[in-house]
Amino acid sequence: MANRRLARRIILCLALASPAFAAPPTSVVIGTPPQPTWSQLTPQQKTTLAPLIKDWDDMENVRRKKWLGIAERFPAMKPEEQARMQERMREWARLTPEQRARVRDTYKDFSQLPPDQKQTVKQKWEAYSSLSEEEKQRARETGKSSRLLSPPPAAPTENTPPSANPDAAQPQQ
Question: Is 112 inside any structural domain?
Fold first, then answer.
């Protein structure tokens, strides 16, 4: 009889403990909650986000949330920062979906660069930005603008002959 009680207790303990040993869920879906439509925005948000009016209701919730965060910070910006932000929104609104995707990919690639390469790209961008419009156009036509703005190539290893590095033979401008 004592053996039966002990067996029952063991079975009861195992039955109660089995959920504790169950595998945790393997995936969790975290989504951005629905964001307001254009008509639901406050007047201040509409003023700030005006360049995006045509695209707003077609945007994904995550993108709307990002722009709402910018609109929230907008009043605290200096007037020149506000003007620059508005101009960038207008430029963004003029881009095609393909161009926007390319810009996002470029930003993602840039953000993954090591700090020293980021600094090099920033310096090259400043050099390119300081060129006159004619010089920029010439650089674009000759393909030098992409080389000028691309991150520096990895340093050649002992096994890599200098001729295998295409930028080694070309002087940087």
Answer: no
| pLDDT tens digits, one per residue of 106-157 | 889 888 989 998 898 888 888 888 888 888 888 878 876 555 555 555 555 4
Helices in 22-151 by DSSP H: which ranges?
A: 43-48, 53-56, 61-73, 79-94, 97-111, 115-129, 133-142, 144-149
- Tokens 């029952």 sit at which residue? 8
Residues 6+ apart with CB under 8 A from 86: 50, 51
- Amino acid 125 reads W
Looking at the domain assignment, is residue 56 inside a domain? yes
The pTM is what?
0.55
SS3 of residue 128 by DSSP: helix
What does the block give as tokens for 58? 């077609």
**46 is written with which tokens?**
């509409």
Domain contains 8: no
Q: Which domain holds residue 88?
A: 39-94
User: CA angle, 32 as apex, 28 and 36 as ends, to 5°?
Assistant: 160
Calculate the CA dihedral of residues 162, 163, 169, 170 and round it to 10 degrees. -110
